[in-house]
Each structure stands twice: as C-alpha cells, then as structure tokens.
Write a structure and sequence with these properties.
By secondary structure, this protein is an alpha/beta fold. The protein has one domain: Metallo-beta-lactamase, Chain A. It has four helices and 14 strands. The strands form two sheets. A seven-stranded mixed beta sheet has the order 1-2-5-6-7-9-8, with no helix packed on it. Strands 3-4-10-11-12-13-14 form a seven-stranded mixed beta sheet, with no helix packed on it. The longest helix is centred in the middle third of the chain and has 15 residues, at 132-146. It comes from Cryptococcus amylolentus CBS 6273.
C-alpha cells in the first residue's frame, strides 16, 4: 500500500496521538492507589502497575538476589505497586537498530519519562516485540534515575539475543527458571516470583501461545514464543490481581496450510486449546491484554 493510498491516509487520522502519559498518577489523586493500572504505549507495549499493598507486606532488602526458593529480589521505592512492562518498543524505528520500518504515529513517551520499572517481559524475539535499542536505553535510564534495573523475563532460548546488553553476572536460581543476573529464561508453564522491596511480590508465569519466532531467515522457530501471566502474590494480598498478556498470539489451531495467504475463514478453524488450559490453571484474570489481527489468524495477532 503506497503512502498516497486514501485508505491509509484515512486510517492514519484514527491513530491516537497521546503524549506524556502520567502512568496512573492522576488516578492516585482520586484515591485509586489500590486499583490495577495499565498504560498502552502503542503496538504490544503495555505498562501495568499492580495495586498498592499494605506497607507491612514489604519483602527482603537488596538490589538483586536469588533465594533458595527461586524468587528474585529487586529494590523498590515510593508508594506504588509492582510495575511490569510488556514488549517495550519505544524507538522511532525497528529492526537492525532502527533501519527497518518507521513509526506511523508519534512515540507515546520518552524512555527517561518512564516510572521505575520492576519487571520487563518479552513475548518473542520478532523485532517489533524485542527491540534491543529500547531495552538498552530502558536499562541505562532506570539505572541512572533509580539506581536499579528491572528483571528481564524471556521465553526459552532467547538469552543470546540480549547477550550484548551486559545483564548477566548472577547464578542460576531455583524454581525451574534459567536465571543469570537480571535475565530469566522460562519454558511454558514455568514461573518465577519477583519480590520488590517495600512494594510487593509478583509471580511471572510463561504460558503458551500460537505464534512463531525469528530474528533472521535461518533461525525461524529456534527460540520459544509465549504469552505471560503476572499475578500479585505477596503477603497482605487478600484479593489477588492477575494479568494475562497475549503477546502476538493467534487464536486458531492450524499448524500448516498449503496456501497461507488464502486460509479458510477463521470461524471454520478449531481454536487453540492452550487458552482454556491457561484459564483453567491460572485464571480468572483481572485484565486481559489480547492482540487483534487481520492477516494470519493461525499464528499471529
């Protein structure tokens, strides 16, 4: 579709242009500290802040450690809930350090304006979901502004993609995850608890989805893709809040087709059974962050 196509031009007028989001601060002024907050940052990027929990529920101190129970401990601060940032892509372009497609709309926020982030979760390694320049800038900005860095969660076999960011240095922890420093790799159905000092605790579970992975033409499906479930689980939480992040998932279960550009109507295809499994095992959910796509219902959102 050309840039002069009237349909494209009309569509661009519908793209929301939001600048300087306050990430829920205005809600706190109305006594909403105890409620879940979510800020959409374009495409699949969402910042979620869990409800503030009683001060008596503060966890252990320390910037970063791994306990024998497999829980990560990070340093918090201020009256807030645990914050999880999903699939951040906050540059002006993507793919090969900005040499790919450019944004159609303005960047929703500048990275230094982000509040303190405790956890970053990546659904898969496609460039529009795992953006190395964004991750590098976020970690540097968080370290400079708050003196600490988030824990980075990845689906299995994606550590090599972020190896150049210098986030390693720790030892592998328990709990089924493959942890090294601030990078945690998980397989489907594996979970890891993150304790944020003085703020709360969230359990991250890597869950299935219907998609693919690739950074280059020769590594298709060599790394895992996933959805994520985040749930506050700390002491003092009487009514747990749970968030399902679908990543780039499709809904239909079709592993292959002779002509993927002329698929059967989606309603005629069986749905992927993983979603019912996720709901049965980890639901119900307070918030579902689910993609809507129009191209390949069998594999992508």
């Amino acid at each position: 579709m050309s840039t002069k196509d009237p349909t494209r031009a009309q569509a661009k007028t519908l793209i929301p242009h939001i600048t300087n989001p306050d990430f829920g601060k205005s809600l706190n002024e109305y006594g909403k500290e105890g409620e879940l907050k979510a800020t959409w940052l374009g495409h699949a990027s969402v910042l979620v802040e869990f409800p503030t929990v009683p001060s008596s529920s503060s966890g252990p101190t320390g910037l970063m450690s791994t306990s024998t129970a497999g829980a990560q401990s990070v340093q918090g601060g201020g009256k807030r809930g645990v914050r999880v940032l999903f699939d951040p892509v906050l540059g002006e372009g993507m793919a090969f350090w900005g040499l790919g497609p450019k944004r159609e709309s303005s960047n929703p926020c500048k990275i230094p304006s982000l509040p303190q982030i405790d956890i970053i979760a990546i659904s898969h390694n496609h460039y529009d979901h795992l953006d190395l320049p964004t991750l590098s800038s976020v970690f540097a900005s968080q370290k400079e502004t708050y003196g600490s860095e988030p824990v980075l969660f990845l689906p299995l076999n994606n550590r090599h993609v972020v190896s150049g960011l210098g986030l390693g240095g720790g030892k592998e922890g328990g709990g089924g995850g493959r942890g090294e420093g601030k990078v945690i790799e998980l397989n489907w159905w594996e979970g890891r608890r993150v304790v944020v000092d003085g703020v709360g605790e969230v359990e991250m579970t890597c869950t299935p989805c219907q998609h693919t992975s690739a950074r280059y033409p020769w590594d298709r499906d060599k790394s895992l893709w996933s959805s994520w479930v985040a749930k506050d689980v700390g002491p003092g939480v009487t009514n747990p809040t749970s968030v399902f992040f679908g990543g780039d998932t499709g809904y239909c279960a079709l592993h292959s087709h002779p002509n993927p550009f002329h698929l059967p109507p989606p309603l005629s295809l069986p749905y992927c059974p993983a979603f019912k499994d996720i709901g049965d095992k980890l639901g119900p959910f307070t918030l579902g962050l689910i993609p809507i796509g129009a191209y390949f219902p069998t594999e992508s959102g």
